[in-house]
Write a structure and sequence with these properties.
Helices cover 33% and strands 10% of the residues. It is α/β, with parallel strands linked by helices and 356 residues long. It has one domain (68-350): TIM Barrel (Alpha-Beta Barrel), CATH 3.20.20.70. The protein has an 8-stranded mixed sheet. Helix 9 (231-246) links the parallel strand 5 and strand 6. Mean pLDDT is 87; it is low at 1-45.
């Protein structure tokens, strides 16, 4: 299993270990009992900046060994999802050009990442995507491709699907809800049905079946201004319902809170819910989630080749090291120990079980 694979901190498991007088396992989390106890008091409000909250808990957010390269192909997308932190959509013009794609391929060659994570917008809509997948897949042990499912199953992407299958790329698919009305409200008319069709097609190609080693993971975001349910419960519910109703299987499911950025922030402001949502995130701050945050082991590249600590910082325009650095200037991965750029949207990733 790749060292940079998503990990989630289970506070319940830690508390149970404490109750039994047994020290919980530190493997993959880098946390300890002291951290669990420190994070158990969640009285913060958004009036306290995220950096100050870290300091009050005796924490700092610094880069570890960078093992994952995340590539954002651009903001062009066939959907205009209400929860999108990037405000991606059909009218966006930001899309990676061939020169930037070549610079990123060269960077990957000299950096030896464990994982490359391709995202967007809808990366399927970038004209350089086939070249990028072909050349990057041979340079990394694990290639991940994030899809909203409808762009991939548009009838024009069969060659890309065949390539992802041949290169054994992990497909990470957005699938927010088992409720058709909720999904279509969040993502657009008829999106639920089209997503079901796409999952069935991927299953028919071997994706999602344990015996094929073609990994199909689902990502579930809440459809409103609230935190996600516990990941294990959601995964069980989705696994049972998808199999029973549509004969669909998948490997893993990840639940993430919505970041108060982009179109989702605009929606919160229109509803008058922005302050209450920010307070909800801050009041659920979990100190134990900090050590395993994805920004500590990931570097994010924008469609124009600039570096960020994560895709949320990219959406915020918060550059890595708070200065614009182009991928062509990088000799290798960012060094360990560099501070992570933070702002109050970082409460999203430290609320509850965290976003790691």
């Amino acid at each position: 299993m790749c060292a940079s694979r998503w990990r989630r901190v289970s506070v319940w498991n830690i508390e149970q270990a404490i109750m039994r007088g047994v020290e919980p396992s530190k493997e993959g989390t880098g946390i300890n009992v002291g951290c669990a106890l420190q994070g158990s008091s969640m009285s913060e409000t958004i009036s306290e900046p995220f950096r100050q909250t870290l300091s009050r808990h005796g924490l700092s957010l610094e880069r570890g060994k960078t093992t994952t390269l995340q590539i954002n192909m651009g903001l062009l997308c066939n959907q205009s999802c209400r929860h999108c932190h990037l405000s991606a959509g059909p009218d966006r013009k930001e899309n990676m050009d061939a020169a930037t794609a070549e610079a990123i391929i060269a960077y990957a060659e000299r950096s030896c990442f464990d994982t490359i994570d391709i995202t967007g917008g809808a990366p399927e809509l970038n004209p350089n995507i086939v070249n990028l997948v072909e050349r990057l897949s041979s340079r990394v042990p694990r290639l991940m491709f994030r899809s909203n499912l409808t762009a991939l199953n548009s009838g024009k992407m069969d060659h890309l699907i065949d390539l992802l299958q041949a290169r054994r790329a992990v497909i990470v698919a957005s699938f927010p809800s088992l409720n058709e009305a909720q999904t279509d409200s969040q993502r657009g008319d008829d999106i639920f049905r089209k997503s079901i069709d796409a999952l069935r097609k991927l299953n028919s190609l071997g994706y999602g079946h344990a015996e094929t080693a073609l990994e199909l993971d689902l990502v579930c975001n809440p459809t409103g201004a609230f935190l996600p349910e516990p990941q294990e419960q959601v995964a069980k519910k989705f696994r049972e319902a998808l199999l029973t109703k549509w004969g669909i299987v998948f490997n893993n499911l990840f639940t993430f809170a919505n970041a108060p950025l982009g179109r989702f922030r605009n929606w919160l402001e229109e509803k008058g819910d922005i302050e209450s949502y920010l307070r909800r995130l801050a009041s659920n701050f979990n100190a134990c989630a900090v050590q395993g945050l994805m920004c500590r082991t990931l570097v994010s590249l924008s469609w124009n080749g600039y570096l960020y600590d994560c895709d949320f910082n990219l959406a915020k325009g918060l550059h890595m090291g708070k200065q614009k650095t182009h991928v062509s200037e990088m000799a290798g991965p960012p060094p360990e120990g560099n501070p992570i750029a933070v702002a109050d949207h970082c409460y999203t990733c430290t609320a509850g079980a965290g976003f790691t």
